[in-house]
Amino acid sequence: MLARSWDGETRAEHGDEYVEYLRRTGVADLLATAGNRGVYVLRREEGGRTRFRLVSLWDSRDAIRGFAGDDPERARYYPEDERFLLALTPGVEHFEVAIGPAVDPSGEEARRIAADLRAVGRGEAFHGPALRDILEGVSAEQAAARPIGAAHSLWEIVLHITAWNGAWRQRLEGRVVDEPEEGDFPPVPSPTEEAWNEARSLVLASQEALADRVARLTTAELDAAVPHRDFDVRSMLRGAVRHTVYHSGQVALLAKASLEVSA
User: Fold this and answer.
1) Which residues pair with 232 in a beta bridge?
2) 157 vs 28, 153, 154, 249, CA distance in Å?
3) For the chain, which end, N or C, has fewer CB atoms within 10 Å of the first or last residue's CB respectively?
4) Residues 6+ away with beta carbon under 8 Å from 223
5) How far apart are CA 105 and CA 84, in angstroms?
6) CA-CA distance, 149 to 24, in Å (whole number)?
7) Model pTM greater than 0.70?
8) DSSP letters spanning 166-178
9) Domain ranges of the chain
């Protein structure tokens, strides 16, 4: 395993803002690059300045080129780095990791979580029918119905699952996300069969996209804290599995209730 180390400095008053900028840019891109095993951002206050050291862990030098380009010894900068940094250090350092934290090189734990996400969406789910099977045969009229008073409609819950799957993927890229951009329960469009078929396809695609991203995580990334949250990525993703299971149960009940009302 190799470590790539970069150093930079900002004025002290820009330190917090630069951490968030790093999270959205370099850290997000590092974590999304195949062969990356984790990222550490270190900071230290010194006489009105904030020093940063960014250390990323890698499977190989070829993996580093996937992030850095043809010359892995050169630092990679982003458009606003010049606004924050007192100097743009041209180079980085690479080290062989002689002793480090326990790492699951095979990514087995992440693949197990990804498999659970796929199973509750399309596969043989451990709790009962997968979401795809529950939604099969549900019409737009049934999806938009409210057979249980003021409770959410089946369609609203499907949009809710889709939105949160997207939010969790954004958090995996290092973004600070309080709730989905579309809202916690996005509004239902005009209830046509075309719109419903699209919503049904998107929720399954969002489950698959989240599983694909999770399958590439390392143990270090599972151990990492979720940005601006007091829990780690592993806990968030286990919650994501339970989230789909919980709402799949609601969808199943609403599908049955809407059939009984229309009968």
Assistant:
1) 225
2) 29, 6, 5, 11
3) C
4) 38, 101, 232, 233, 234
5) 35
6) 42
7) no
8) HHHHHHHTT---S
9) 2-96, 108-262
CA distances from 173 to 22, 23, 68, 145 (A): 11, 8, 17, 36
| Six token digits for residue 85 | 């940094």
pLDDT in tens, 33-87: 888 888 899 999 999 999 999 999 998 999 999 999 999 999 999 999 999 999 9
Residue 111's pLDDT is 85
Q: What one-character-per-residue DSSP string does 72-91 give? A: TTB----TTHHHHBS----B
The ranges of the chain with pLDDT < 70 are 101-106, 125-127, 260-263
Beta-sheet pairing, 93-96 with 2-11: antiparallel
CB 176 within 8 A of CB 216: no
To which CATH superfamily is domain 108-262 assigned? dinb family like domain (1.20.120.450)
The amino acid that residue 54 corresponds to is L
